[in-house]
Specification:
Structural class of chain B: mainly alpha
Number of strands of chain B: 0
Low-confidence stretches of chain A: none
Structural class of chain A: alpha/beta
Strand order of the largest sheet of chain A: 1-3-4-7-2-8
Radius of gyration of chain A: 37 Å
Number of helices of chain B: 5
Shape of chain A: extended
Mean pLDDT of chain A: 85
Oligomer: heterodimer
Strand content of chain A: 5-15%
Helix content of chain B: over 70%
Largest sheet of chain B: none
Low-confidence stretches of chain B: none
């Protein structure tokens, strides 16, 4: 390795590369002019002046021609004859770094290369950044060369290109890991970046290359198809933006298509897979492959054309009874007679089922599919395939089913890179690598209606409108999904948000009295989440709130919704006393289209929420078992087997179980922390909760009953709310202390806690104010003083009225 | 410097020549593909655009007429295909000659100064009047 990593600046290849760089564009122009000058000048001397030396002058044009050809053919990228650095270093770099290079010389050469520009645009690794992490000591070069050879091997690159060398330079930086972390990149990302760069170059070269597609006489032997042309899209001609998609992710399915149609069996294929998985793209790639003379395709498939039928155009053109069948017959007969057509029925279910926008053409299609005279491709999702198999088993038996599997992360990234060539041109933007990675991560979690790679690409496309000066970053993708879901998905960044998180307890206490331990543990969980240090494969926090009614359990949940998610309405609330039967599990996971109030449907619509499961102890054990995965992994599967994420939710279960025991402990003078553990043991031993259920929570928080002082504070909070409401009328209210004590006595119920308090205060205070206002005793700017007598009167009136 | 000149000649008669030949063969292949010679030969007597190519049932008279139609369609197809093949063949011959000339020039170009010196020494005259 040591010998290999040596750089020999005096090698023949290095000299050629330097010459290649030295022959710049002006030199090329000069040589071209010289060629023309010598040739015509020499001939003119012979012809016009009979000077025979003109032959010599004209013949000397061979020298510049040879130099120009040599430059074009070899000097730009001299042939490699070994494995040492100077033999595998890309010509454009080798020619620029001179005979005694330093790391800074490498940076200059890399920054000017296409690979360097690519990494500056896509990864934000600029020449300034590279300059900061390199020295000007020639001795440091050997480490970079060794690293470059290793990176080249890892990425499978032919040469040490600008991109490879750039990654090697970053690899050799002293604080490499922290630098990468700062750029939100991982080790593997840079290697994937090299592959992306080389893959893009390969695709561009492939697009530039002329294609052989059968020539002018290709279709002479095949029939006319006027009706089919009207109702179908020729995928073989209309590859458009998807041209040259390499489809590495689906190469297996593509080969199966070719094998099936190339062999003598049934000439049909049903591509089955969820929406967004790439079924139509496979058909397009198949069409493109058949048209490419250089591809290995059986001769009976070569230059066959794939037509995708437009179902809506067909249905709308034949409104009358039986007309559609006639039209379809005509289209298929044309395709059959033409002898070079493969029909594609995209979303084929619309041709096999009755309903809005659908029609049952099984009677026409089944004989054709069974007969195998006409090649047909059908695409549909698994669910529809199963439905059709129930309705029409003979149809399904006649089909050659090919399952299309979802793409994994690496495949999805490659597919997105392929598609971006067209998207970037269309939207006039440049996508950074971070945008692709973020699109994969966020779409995997929040977009449920599509499968990979479609879901990631859909998000990536919608991010184009959130570009920053033509650059689509990870932040653009976050903005795009925030616009869709309406909540923040990024790490806390704004000063205001940081302030909220740091002072979370104070903000919650603005609307909640005491329960400091509960507030503390919940606030800690949220800080962990927004600073990005939590386990992302679980909900933000899972809490079990235990305690009597009216002590603030629900209030804390609402406060969290408001402080953390920006509104009390950011809450999914389920009363678990409605889930007391085993069959209630199905209501919990029902399809949103059938039951929009099911837990999974609500979480899909609003993943960033407080999920409040009230009175959890009343739910059936089977319901609790269903919830275990939610608490453990932050996911739940709905009735359609879609994985619904709860990883951005705060899950709070509340329970009154053991409320009497809590009161008893408090009355006997115990403090919360003294009996908390024993109390939870009692809940387990009395079979109110199973230990495996309790173990799933991050924290079990016991709420204690409020004492009189705290209840007075609750009254103050309610009064502050009343004053806030009347602020617009410039009126405020002040309640005497003895009146507040009276309100506490009236508003506190040992069983219901402080819950009746709001009602009592509203009745006493708001009624008094209303009467005074209607009696004309209140003007703007007035402070209404409410005495004990007034409160007593208001409450007595109310009681009499209710009697 | 000498090393570079040697390299230039090595490339010229080695990889450079191979590249030239490959480039020429790709161009010829494209031309053959454009005129679809193999397809035209394979389908020389096929009915043109499948006109009157379908199977016809019925009385003898109807079948005879269908046979005649199909024969006519085949003749038309064969004529058109033959014409295209002839045009294509001519273009191909010209292209092959151009390619050969190109390669001969490539081979001879390094020797051009020597030819120039020889022409100068013999005093070959290329005046308009000759």
């Amino acid at each position: 390795m040591d010998n290999v990593a040596k750089f020999n600046p005096l090698s023949v290849r290095a000299a050629k590369a330097r010459l290649g760089v030295a022959i710049s564009k002006p030199i090329i122009l000069l040589l071209t002019v010289l060629t023309i000058g010598l040739l015509f000048g020499g001939l003119a001397m012979v012809v016009m002046a009979d000077i025979y030396a003109g032959w010599l002058v004209a013949s000397l044009c061979a020298a510049p021609i040879m130099i120009l050809e040599w430059h074009r053919g070899e000097l730009k990228q001299p042939k490699s004859n070994g494995v040492s650095v100077d033999e595998v270093l890309a010509g454009n770099i080798l020619g620029k770094i001179g005979k005694n290079p330093t790391p800074k010389d490498l940076v200059r050469a890399v920054s000017a290369s296409r690979g360097g520009v690519f990494f500056a645009n896509r990864f934000g690794i600029t020449s300034g950044f590279l300059d900061n992490i390199t020295t000007d000591k020639p001795a440091d070069l050997e480490k970079i060369w060794q690293s470059a050879l290793a990176v080249r091997e890892k990425s499978g690159s032919e040469f040490i290109s600008g991109a490879v060398l750039l990654v090697a330079i970053v690899d050799c930086a002293e604080d490499r890991d922290s630098l990468l972390a700062h750029m939100k990149l991982e080790n593997q990302d840079l290697i994937l970046g090299i592959k992306w760069y080389e893959h893009t170059r390969h695709l561009i070269e492939k697009i530039k290359r002329p294609r052989r597609t059968g020539g002018i006489a290709r279709d002479f032997a095949f029939g006319y198809i006027p009706t089919l042309k009207k109702f179908g899209q020729n995928l073989s001609e209309n590859t458009g933006g998807n041209a040259h998609v390499e489809l590495e992710a689906h190469s297996e399915e593509l080969d199966m298509l070719i094998d099936t149609f190339g062999s003598g069996g049934r000439q049909n294929v049903a591509l089955v897979g969820p929406t967004g998985i790439g079924k139509t793209t496979i058909v397009r790639a198949f069409a493109e492959r058949l048209m490419d003379a250089e591809q290995k395709v059986p001769s009976n498939l070569k230059f066959r054309q794939v037509y995708m039928l437009d179902s809506s155009a067909l249905i709308s053109s034949a409104p009358g009874r039986g007309e559609l069948e006639g039209l379809m017959n005509r289209v298929l007969s044309e395709a059959y007679s033409a002898r070079n057509i493969i029909i594609c029925l995209d979303n084929a279910q619309v041709f096999f089922e009755e309903g809005v926008g659908s029609v049952d053409l099984s009677n026409i299609l089944l004989p054709i599919i069974e007969g195998g005279g006409l090649r047909i491709i059908l695409t549909m999702d698994e669910q529809r395939y199963l439905q059709i198999s129930q309705q029409n088993s003979s149809l399904v038996n006649a089909l050659n089913r090919v399952n299309v599997a979802p793409a994994d992360r690496e495949q999805t990234m490659t597919i997105m890179q392929d598609m971006l060539l067209f998207t970037e041109y269309q939207h006039k933007v440049t996508y950074m690598y971070h945008a692709l990675a973020e699109a994969y991560r966020l779409s995997e979690r929040y977009i449920h209606e599509l499968e990979m790679p479609g879901r990631a690409f859909k998000l990536l496309e919608s991010s184009a409108s959130h570009d920053n000066g033509g650059l689509v970053t990870g932040n653009s993708v976050q903005q795009a999904i925030e616009k869709t879901i309406g909540v923040k998905v990024g790490v806390a960044s704004g000063e205001e948000e940081r302030d909220t998180l740091m002072n979370m307890e104070d903000k919650i206490h603005e609307r909640m009295i005491n329960q400091t331990r509960a507030v503390q543990v919940v606030s800690d969980a949220l800080r962990r989440a927004r600073s990005g240090v939590r386990n992302e494969n679980r909900p933000i926090g899972t809490f079990l709130f235990l305690g009597p009614t009216g002590v603030g359990k629900t209030e804390l949940s609402k406060a969290l919704g408001e402080v953390y998610f920006g509104g009390e309405d950011r809450m999914i609330r389920l009363d678990m006393n409605q889930y007391v039967m085993p069959e209630d599990v199905s209501r919990l996971i029902a399809d949103g289209a059938k039951d929009p109030n099911s837990l999974t449907a609500q979480a899909m619509k609003q993943p960033f929420s407080v999920l409040l499961l009230d009175e959890i102890e009343k739910a059936h054990p089977q319901v609790l078992t269903t919830l275990l995965q939610l608490l453990d992994e932050g996911v739940m599967r709905d009735v359609n087997n879609r994985e619904i994420s709860f990883r951005d939710a705060i899950v709070i279960c509340t329970s009154n179980a053991g409320a009497d025991r809590i009161r008893e402990y408090i009355q006997r003078g115990y403090k919360l922390k003294d009996f908390e553990k024993q109390f939870i043991d009692e809940l387990i031993s009395s079979n109110q909760f199973k230990p495996e259920f309790l173990n799933r929570f991050d924290e079990i928080v016991v709420f204690r009953p409020l004492n009189k002082e705290e209840l007075l504070q609750v009254v103050d909070l309610i009064l502050a709310g009343v004053n806030k409401t009347m602020q617009s009328q410039k009126i405020s209210v002040n309640v005497a202390d003895d009146a507040k004590s009276f309100l506490v006595d009236k508003g506190y119920d040992p069983r219901l806690g402080a819950r009746p308090m709001r009602r009592v205060v509203q009745r006493a205070v708001e009624n008094t104010i209303a009467k005074q206002m209607l009696g004309g005793k209140v003007n703007p700017g007035t402070v209404i003083e409410i005495t004990l007598d007034q409160v007593k009167t208001a409450l007595n009136d109310g009681e009499e009225a209710s009697d | 410097m000498v090393m570079l000149v040697v390299s230039l000649f090595q490339w010229w008669y080695g990889d450079g020549l191979r590249e030239r030949v490959k480039f020429a063969s790709v161009r010829l292949e494209s031309l053959i593909d454009y005129f679809s010679f193999s397809l035209l030969l394979k389908t020389l007597f096929s009915p043109y655009r499948q006109i009157s190519a379908g199977k016809v049932d019925g009385a003898l008279e109807v079948q005879l007429r269908a046979f005649a139609d199909k024969l006519f369609s085949r003749v038309i197809g064969a004529v058109i295909r033959l014409m295209i093949m002839i045009v294509g063949f001519v273009v191909l011959i010209i292209s092959v000659m151009y390619t050969l000339l190109n390669i001969i020039l490539w081979l001879a170009l390094p020797a051009l100064p020597l030819i120039g010196v020889w022409l100068m020494l013999i005093g070959w005259n290329l005046s308009w009047t000759m």
